[in-house]
Amino acid sequence: MKDVREALMVGRNSEGKLVRRPLSPHLQAYNMLRMSSASSIFHRITGVALGAGTLLLTLWLVTAATSDAAFAFTQGLLGSWLGLLILFGFTFALFYHFCNGIRHLSWDAGKGFELTEMHRNGTIVIAAAVVLTVAFWVIGFLVW
Amino acid sequence: MSNDTPSIHIMRSKLGRAQGLGSAKSGLHHWWAQRLTAIALLPLVLYFLASLLILAGASRAQVGAYIGEPWNTVLFLALIAALFYHLSLGLQTVIEDYVHVEGKRLATLLVVKGGIILLALASAVSVLKLAL
Question: CA–CA distance from A140 to each of A64, A143, B56 (Å)?
């Protein structure tokens, strides 16, 4: 062990033997069906998915600034069944990331960290994301 | 004790080890910027979703007229700035967690960050072109 940082990677197991600590995040170490790990990894997955979704935002703005034909292409793409499905997934990812982001900010403020609270506010986040997505699309189809 | 069993040979004070690891001066910037952009995005995303509902089925001229309203131009530009900055910080974290080979990690970061800057510029220029 040459690197000083290695010293922090060593711990003892339950038998008192020196072992190398696992790196984090270390997916196989977690039960992914638990609220804590599931809501965390879903925050990351929706974040990356929203990153891909910003390509659509850029496409929409660039084609709107380009020409009628270019904008018609984007409208055709987003108005198709596949486009609407992608937009539906995009809004759900956005509402989840939005609500769970508020949950993360409250954790940063030191609130809602107890296990029972964490389970409850995680459930609220999932329910809120579903309700907001459905409400958004109901309003969307009403005003369209 | 076999050779692959880890052990600690370094005799060093806790202060010395902490100093060897560097201070939290610039490391905090990423964390702080991620939170600030998150807070900024809360109202901006709600505004953006409301704009999408207003513009559902709108023609190109209507989209241009909406984005061309001064406050809408400002809010769209603010949204683009906060959104792409937040995205850049978030993807950086993901890449640093999962790409372990140093050269590959640096290359991935440069490509992703460069791409995000181009997308942000394209979006902002388009908003300005619609507005001006």
Answer: 20, 5, 7
Give how far Cα A90 sits from Cα of A24, A57, B35, B87, Å. Answer: 28, 11, 22, 15
List of residues 6+ apart from B1 with CB closer than 8 A: B7
Residue B125 to residue A65, Cβ atoms within 8 A: yes
Q: Are B65 and B56 in contact (CB under 8 A)?
A: no
- Residue B50: closest C-alpha in chain A: A136
User: Which token pair is B31?
Assistant: 């964390």
Indicate if the pLDDT at residue B71 is higher than 50: yes
Whole-prediction pTM: 0.82
Give the helix/strand (H/E) hosting A19.
strand A18-20
Instruction: Classify the C-alpha dihedral A93-A98-A103-A109 as positive or negative.
Output: positive
How far is the C-alpha of A39 from the C-alpha of A37, rounded, in Å? Answer: 6
Residue of B nearest to A140 (CA): B53
ipTM of the complex: 0.81
